[in-house]
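Quick one: co-fold with zinc ion.
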Amino acid sequence: MPIIAPSMLAADFANIQRDTELINNSLADWFHIDIMDGVFVPNISFGFPVTEAIKKHAKKPLDVHLMIVRPENYIDQFAKLGAAYISVHWEACPHIHRTLGQIKEAGCKAGVVLNPGTPVHMLEEIISDCDLVLLMSVNPGFGGQKFIPSTIEKVRKLKQMITEAKSDTIIEIDGGVNYETGKALVEAGADALVAGSYVFSNADPLKTIEGLKNL
Ligand code: DX5
Ligand code: ZN
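Sure, here it is.
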């Protein structure tokens, strides 16, 4: 069964406690937390106070996705807030090996994110250092975008790399995930699926999550 991580970017921020409890009571596994700085991506989402508000009510691990420049400057603060996973963009980290070490030293699981235009072979030297690899299946910055189909082939390549390295790295996918794309992704080797608008725009989010869980 895939790990399901609803993106809180698509939640109702005026009812953040209600939407956090909705996920607590669902079959979802993690809370996906999208942090955008308006520099690395062309949008600003939210930062520490909102993350803290979610954490206060969350009964499942926080999966923090940093779409920011200089993520190394903010790792300790997200770790202190109680993040379980912290993922940084390969494109934002000239010293990715050091940054992964920093995340682990802070007591969190370490993830690397690849934009759609970044090939998976960029991870060859560090795959065993990654607890998680997050493949973007849209260009980061906004929820509700269309899934980029070439991601399926990227998942296969990444799965092969992980198998060859005898690593237990989790493959997570983010962007445009719904029942159809989710099914293809799981068949290709994805372990975890992020879903924002597909979950929260639905009249029955619990059932939508259940559908993804039973893919
Ligand atoms: C995009 C974010 C995603 C986004 C997913 O930059 O990283 O997590 O919220 O939203 P959907 O599932 O609507 O594509
Ligand atoms: Zn995300």
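If it helps, The chain has a mean pLDDT of 98.
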